[in-house]
Amino acid sequence: MVQVIFHHKNGDMQEIDAPENFSLMQAAKQHNVDGIEGVCGGCMACATCHVIVAPAWEERVIAQDNEKSDEEEDTLDTAFHVEDTSRLACQIKLTPALDGLEVALPGAEPIWRKSA
Predict the structure, then answer these.
(1) Strands 13-18 and 50-53, bridge-based pairing
(2) Could you tell me how many helices (H) and strands (E) the chain has, helices first?
(3) Where are the alpha helices (DSSP H) in 9-91?
(4) Are 107 and 10 in contact (CB under 8 A)?
(5) How far apart are the first and last CA of the chain?
(6) In which domain, by residue range, is 25 found?
(7) What is the pLDDT along the chain (116 residues), one digit of tens a residue?
(8) What CATH number is given to the structural domain containing 105?
(9) In the chain, how many domains are there?
């Protein structure tokens, strides 16, 4: 299992345990993470699974064969609150190396910003 921490707009944090090789979107939907809809089912046709990856995790996410494609960038152009580390959760495959991954929902004020 891979632990993921979601930072919500109301300041709450939600920790979930997800199976390896699930997408972050699949895991979020399985655990009813508020703010992750995944309307298109993971085909990058919407941005309803938009998350902001904690900067400390960005390189680790990419190193797990989760590079951001041009198509993902184009889809993120339709989202609100896009940041440098914004990603579509459907494009992040969870691996053991991502255990403890922290992401924020758009509009959240995650703890990593408060400590910066």
Answers:
(1) unpaired
(2) 4, 5
(3) 24-30, 55-63, 70-76
(4) no
(5) 30
(6) 2-114
(7) 999 999 999 999 999 999 999 999 999 999 999 999 999 999 999 999 999 999 999 999 999 999 999 999 999 999 999 999 999 999 999 999 999 999 999 999 887 876 55
(8) 3.10.20.30
(9) 1
